[in-house]
Amino acid sequence: MNSPDDSTFEEISKLITNRGPISFETFMEHVLYSANGFYSRKGRIGAKGDYFTSPSLHPVFGSFLAVQIYTMWKVLQRPRPFALVEFGSGDGLLAKALLNTISFLDKDFEYSCEYFSIDRFHSSEVPYLKKFLVGNEIPITNMKGVVFSNELIDALPVRLIEVSDGKVLEVFVDLSSENTLVEILKPPQVPLPDHISEKEISSLEGYRGPVNDRLIEWYGQLGNILESGFVITIDYGFNQNEYYSMENSKKLIQTYYKHVQGSSPYQRIGRQDITAHADFSALKFVGERNGFLNVYQTTQRKWLVSLGFDEWIQSEVTNGNLSRSMEMLINNLVDPNGLGKFQVLIQHKGSNLIDKGQSTASQQLISSFRVPEVTDEYIAYRLTGSELDTHSY
Question: 3-state class of 155 per DSSP?
Answer without folding.
Answer: helix
